Amino acid sequence: MQKISNEIEIIRQLFGSLSEKDKKTFIKSIKFQDEPSKSEAIKREITHCPHCNSTEFSKNGKVSGFQRFICKECGKTFGTRNQTIFYAVKKDMEVWKQYIHCMIEKYSLRKTAEICGISTRTAFTWRHKILDALQKMQDKVRLDGVVEADETFLSLSFKGHHKNFNLPRLAKHRGEPATRRGLSKEQVCISCGVNLNGLSISKISNLGKPKLQDIEKVLINKIQKDSILVTDSFRAYLKLAKDMNLSHIRIPRNHYKIGAFNIQTINSYHSRLKNMLIHSFKGVSTKYLNNYLVYNNFVNFAKESRSGKEQILLDHIINTECLSKSVNIANRPAVPLPQVS
Ligand SMILES: [Zn+2]
Fold first, then answer.
1. How far apart (Å, rounded) are the C-alpha atoms in residues 147 and 9?
2. How far is the CA of 286 from the centre of ligand 1 (A)?
3. What domains appear along the chain, each with residue ranges and CATH number?
4. pLDDT at 172
5. Is the per-residue pLDDT at 234 higher than 60?
6. Which residues contact residue 287 at a Cβ distance below 8 angstroms, ignoring those fewer than 6 apart?
7. How far is the CA of 322 from the centre of ligand 1 (A)?
8. What mean pLDDT do residues 222-247 have?
9. Residue 263, CB half-sphere, CA atoms under 13 Å: how many?
10. 273 near 290, Cβ under 8 Å?
């Protein structure tokens, strides 16, 4: 009999314990995984007039490709984009489509502005409007299957802040950290979890060395039960796995793997993130970092094809209530730490 690798043996054994129905679903899922995923856009349902809440309204033509409605009660008109990021934006849909293409390609603001015929300032505003909407898609992500978790660190950046901006008071810098122990408060800790299927979660959790509570703010209730959590030997994850009732594989220090399990996917997730921030965007301000994390999740890590992503993103922003206005983009905190709930 041919020798089977441990990895395949684990999958084979797990497969044997599936129900007949799950076996069929599994075979189907691996057969079709190379095909581009079809986006299943749910058209945003208009249920009432945003002016008077009346449910009596009818169609009233289209503007830049968007359906308009007229209220039979108050006589005012409204559209499907009244509560989306497109509200009060005059550019045609075709320009947004081009813009989204540039985003998926990770073009710089300058190049994007040139291609779309908009100012770099508008390009910047649109980037964050779209990423604000994308945050809402990310908030719904729940990791399942084999989930690898680890943090990564970036230096605090106040790039782009006004000259007389007051720097937040920080602890003394003590040189570059080699380990979590030596981390200074000038290092932004990003807690992350990914699965082997292209789903990912990441957010700024704290400054300096993370505690269990910091990592929990990002990952608690975001990993489905019966998942396997794979981490390095950092103790906080022991408690996290216990609190969330997950099977836990700990990779000891100076080891790459235990059996079939390793943390290579999360390591490569971190390097693609840093590569994008440094090479495509020449460093980003901590203020906007959470938005670039969802950018990385969607553009670099998710498994859909590029054209699939363009369609998914367009459908998402058209159908998502998000009142991110241009004037408010810059008003977020310089260091956006999670709110204590
Ligand atoms: Zn009305």
1. 19
2. 42
3. 42-82 (no CATH), 146-159+182-300 (3.30.420.10)
4. 44
5. yes
6. 158, 160, 161, 330, 332, 333, 334, 335, 336
7. 21
8. 93
9. 26
10. no
Q: In sequence order, which ranges of 32-184 are alpha helices (DSSP H)? A: 93-104, 109-116, 120-138
Nearest to 295 by CA among 163, 80, 109: 109
Residues 237-255 have a mean pLDDT of 93
User: How many angstroms does the Cα of residue 178 sit away from the middle of ligand 1?
Assistant: 61
Contact 172, 142 (CB under 8 A): no
Burial 61-96 (b: 16+ CB within 10 A, else e): eeeeeeeebebeeeeebbbbbbbbbbeebebeeebb
Structure tokens at 163: 């000259």
pLDDT band, very low/low/confident/very high, at 5 (cuts 50, 70, 90): low
Give the Cα separation of 120 and 135 in Å (integer): 22
Given this model, what pLDDT does residue 14 score? 78
pLDDT by residue (tens digit) across 94-123? 898 999 999 999 999 999 999 999 999 999
103 neighbors 299 (Cβ within 8 angstroms): yes
How much distance in Å is there from the Cα of 55 to the middle of ligand 1? 8
